[in-house]
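job 3f2a | input accepted
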Amino acid sequence: MTRTTAPLNAFRIIAAELADWADAADQEGHHSYAQACADLGLVYLEFEDADTTHPRVTTAWCAAESARMSLTDGTGIEARARTSRARLHLALARREQSADLSNT
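job 3f2a | predicted structure (104 res):
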């Protein structure tokens, strides 16, 4: 089974839910909220390829979940900042892992 034929996992399920929220918000004219949902959905898709044992990925996960809770309550307050933090920690984890691999 390849990644493209694998059944949906939790990260994709959450991303799909956020895509639905983004679509609904956009149709209602809440474009900032829609963008926050879409951006966070992209972060959840990045978790599929992340090493979940890396400490930065754990930090990213906590930030993403906090952002999702902010969006869940309908306000989206601080969701963008938390989403950005999650994206940054995921990127740092990837680079740190690449550096570790190149040093071996």
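job 3f2a | Residues 5 and 12 are 13 Å apart (CA to CA).
job 3f2a | closed
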